[in-house]
Amino acid sequence: MEWIKKVKQMKGINEFNEDFQLKIGGSQILETNTFLSDMDILCILPKYINIYDFNGEDGIYGLYGRLLLNKRINVNIVQTSRILMLELKIDGIDVDLIYAQIPFKNVTNNFDIMNNEIIEENKNKQSILALAGFRSTIKIKEMNLNQKLFISLMRFLKIWAKNRLIYSNIAGYLSGSSLAIMSAKICIIYPNASLPIAIKQFFIFYKLWGWPQPILLNELENEFKKAKEIVEPWKWINKEDNSEFENDSETDSNDELEEEKEGNDGKQMSIITSGFPEQNTTFNVNKFTFKRIIKEIERGT
């Protein structure tokens, strides 16, 4: 990649080695993508390529800036505390290019994204979360699921959620990741079900689920001590065990606390990825969107 060569020259790095890898993720890995699905691509970069090299507007040393000069590509930058990515539209195809730095000098041909060192030794929160998201998708793919049932169920639920206007992580609704975990759970419980039965059981199961009790596909991991200093793993806050949530008095301070903790605190909906750092895929769900989601689930029974 010409951009990386320029960055290496600027930083005085003369080594010739593998500099990056692009890995297709999301629904493409799970084979649940549809005609309208975006393409998620994880851009895995060595430790000397930092955030400013990726999102810099400089037309020589910044990837974002170089892409802006390409008239065939429409590009927008998206940066939050959780993720850094470039939204691209190339010849009508939507691509999300996600930044993921690893703590190594180079990205070798035999690079293993499931190697725990890329999480344990990483110092970049956004990269840890991006890598963890990709790894959790791989873990679902490697589960002993009825693949035909899982793929069909996922595609149905995506259409259902979009038609009922409850498919948008940013807006506080369900996402592809949350639906994948919910679908996998049904396939684990009912591995030999037909698609109509699996759909029926999906709505019954999640209608009766004791929210905010988390949906988990496996046990939580606690092995990444160093990374925990950077990214706090998801934890379920049980209201019955935490006095902070026992006082329902309608004071201004409590209202502010409620608003502050309305999202990723386990109080609304918790659908958890596999592998560290366990992420709540429904961290943006609030009281209003939670009621909407449950109403649509009940409507499906």
From TrEMBL:
Q: What is its main location?
A: nucleus
A GO term for molecular function: ATP binding
The protein's required cofactor(s) are namely: Mn(2+); Mg(2+)
One GO cellular component, as annotated? nucleus
Region spans: Disordered: 242-272
Q: Which Pfam families match?
A: PAP_central, PAP_NTPase
Q: Which residues form the Poly(A) polymerase nucleotidyltransferase domain?
A: 2-141
Cite the record's Acidic residues compositional bias ranges: 243-262
**Similarity field:** Belongs to the poly(A) polymerase family.
This one is known as: polynucleotide adenylyltransferase
Upper lineage ranks? Eukaryota, Metazoa, Ecdysozoa, Nematoda, Chromadorea
